[in-house]
Amino acid sequence: MDDMTDTRTVAVLGTGIMGAAMARNLVRAGHTVRVWNRTRAKAEPLASDGAEVAGTPAEAVRDADAVLTMLYDGGTVLEVMREAAPALRRGAVWAQSTTAGLESVAELAALADEHGLVFYDAPVLGTRQPAEAGRLTVLAAGPVEGRQAVTPVFEAVGARTVWTGEDAAAATATRLKLVANSWVIAVTAATGEALALAKGLGVDPRGFFDLIAGGPLDMGYLHAKADVILEDTFLPPSFAVTTAEKDARLIVRAGERHGVRLDVAAASAERFARAAAQGHGEEDMAAAYFASFTDHDPAEEDHGRAEP
Question: Which residues lie closer than 8 Å to 169 by C-beta, 6 or more apart?
Fold first, then answer.
């Protein structure tokens, strides 16, 4: 570790939409970066950006100052880190950025403690575009001692770090992320339903946008997701349908554990599942729009789109 320049050797485990972008930004910031992905082909392009592609999680983390996990879910992180952790030196920093359930964070913190790692619950807010631009918001919880080692990592991938506490095992950062994602999911589902209803009723969606323009019902995220639907730009996804379904179910489960019934999140999870079953699982989460047309063949020429 070079304390003079704040550069680190960082291992990034998981190089999907978010992990690949984060790895590139770490390289651009001057860090030595090793990457691993279960499907190696998804990691290989990062070699041309200056990252070293490792064959196993243990190989990726060996001699690393910090490891960043950005995998599918908490169970996947636990499986991968059980393989990787023995190869990490004691005192190395682990920033866990996968959106995971509350119970998973506690399990991961226990694994970190078992191997003498400094654990940070560090999910991020943002999708493909802010990830590629290094403009994510990092939500972080973890001990004050050790933050000097992880801060350069957060600064490379994000524009802002919001500290939520010092006990990573309490999952305060993940709790805030789930609340934020519940809003993202609700707005995405509502956008799709409004445009689907407009299509069904023969209403030009531009009339809806004109009606709410500049008022309290207007918002940027509505337009961002509506544009994906209206312009049929579901690929590449900013946030995939299958991942959104996973997050919606995590949100519902977290609510249930704390005596909160979340009907919108539960219904949204089912909408995402229906869209995935129609063949839209790897498309942008806005493709939940198609779940409104259960009798519609998405392979038809108009692809079920709302007409601009």
Answer: 105, 106, 109, 110, 119, 121
**What pLDDT, in 10s, does the model give residues 8-28?**
999 999 999 999 999 999 999
Longest dimension (CA), the chain: 63
Where in 113-174 does DSSP place strands (E)?
118-121, 124-125, 136-141, 158-165
Query: Which of these, 39, 31, 28, lies nearest to 6 by C-alpha position?
Result: 31
* Distance from the Cα of residue 275 to its chain's centroid: 19
Chain Cα centroid distance, residue 252: 17
* 190-246 pLDDT tens trace: 999 999 999 999 999 999 999 999 999 999 999 999 999 999 999 999 999 999 999
- CA-CA distance, 308 to 305, in Å (whole number)? 9
For the chain, give the number of residues: 308
CB atoms near residue 134 (< 10 Å): 19
